[in-house]
Amino acid sequence: xxxxxTEIEGTPCYPSYxxxxxxxxxxxxxxxxxxxxxxxxxxxxxxxPLLWLPPECFTDQAVEICKSAEVPVIHDVCPVAALATLxxxxxxxxxxx
Length: 97
Description:
Helices cover about 35% and strands about 10% of the residues. By secondary structure, the chain is an alpha/beta fold.
């Protein structure tokens, strides 16, 4: 998602979660903390099933909004490092994941 671009290096961008042609299993918000806090309620309202808020990209309030809405939230864990660790432990993920 990127509301300012229609594509990046040939990959289509969508202006909002609601505009995605298929809903993902999770939304990773690599944004400034204040932006994350502002975006979280809309993602919850749109039905995002899980929010991942990497280190330096969230506020305590954003986490509380998720918890209050009973939306699973992963916070203060780097998704790149977590997935690399899982790859080392369990082997490479299938193509496209």
